[in-house]
Amino acid sequence: MALPDSGEIKLSQLATNFGGSAPHGLKEYYRGGGSVSDNAANSTVPQSGELSLKDFYSSAGTSSRDIRVWMAYQFAAGGYTSGFGVTSQSSTAAPSTISNGANAVAWQPVFHAGTGFITSASITISQNEDVTAYNNNVVLYGGTTSSTVTNVVAAWNAGYNGSTGGARGYSISWNADGTINSITNTSNTYNYAIITWATDNVSAANSAGYKWFGFKATNPPSWSKGALVLGGTFTASSSASITQPS
After folding, report:
1. Cα separation, 54 vs 144, whole angstroms
2. Residue 91 parent element (H or E)
3. 206 and 182 in a common domain
4. Same domain, 225 and 241
5. Is residue 145 located within the same domain as residue 48?
6. Looking at the domain assignment, is residue 1 inside a domain?
7. How confident is the model at residue 22 (pLDDT cuts 50, 70, 90)?
8. Based on C-alpha coordinates, what's the Rg of the chain?
9. 142 and 47 in one domain?
10. Domains in the chain, number
11. What pLDDT digit, counting tens, does each position of 124-177 carry?
């Protein structure tokens, strides 16, 4: 659990979050010094010189979490037969298999971006032919804390085409502090115009200081052919053990 962002902080709270050896002293809690990891969540903690308990506002220890998410419809697409994620936004819930029925939703466990956490990712967004058009089939949410990842940063719509489906690929990079550096369209497959980036609030998200993020993927209302709605980095086994604030 992260330390408070205001008010009193006790040395005992540092020991609970970061460990260390009793008797505890502030000098064992320099960032990168062994107890406090050098990452985006602890960026206000000095690496040397004078230390104050106030330097530890919002800092946190670390743990490994599973942050995988994907959603597919009708049949095995990309090796995934249904969906995987959580049923509502959470930074603590473990993802599991989710139904691939109509309008089914898979949430990604929210994650902190930046140095020591997630700094880059690739996603693919797909829509097959003979599938009902629908809005916000993939949404990236953001917020300033793990419990406020409720703001739309980017959203994609899926259209209808009776002859050819398609997909778009994107590369996402985050700055050292966890804000977004860029979301870039990197690949387009078949009738890629069927996928549109409908909402772009990246600049506003950076201005607001969003460093926590999470995807939501929704299945279409109906279809005649299947596809993987959301794929990419977060479907990989490497996303099953990601360092995050504890």
Report:
1. 19
2. none
3. yes
4. yes
5. no
6. no
7. confident
8. 20
9. no
10. 2
11. 999 999 999 999 999 999 999 999 999 999 999 999 999 999 999 999 999 999
Rounded CA separation 7/65 (Å): 29
Neighbour count for residue 61 (Cβ, 10 Å):
19
Cα 131 → chain centroid:
27
* Same domain, residue pair 110 and 226: yes
Within a domain: 5: no
Do 74 and 124 reside in the same domain of the chain?
Answer: yes
Domain coverage including residue 232: 63-245
Q: Write down the residue that tokens 């104050």 correspond to.
A: 52
55 and 87 inside one domain: no
pLDDT in tens, 168-188: 999 999 999 999 999 999 999
CB 245 within 8 A of CB 36: no
51 CA to centre of own chain: 31
| Cα-based distances in Å from 228 to 77, 110, 178 | 5, 21, 28
Average pLDDT over residues 59-66: 93
Residue 237: band (very low, low, confident or very high) from pLDDT cuts 50, 70, 90 = confident
What span, in angstroms and rounded, lies between the C-alpha atoms of 235 and 71? 9
State which amino acid sits at residue 29: Y
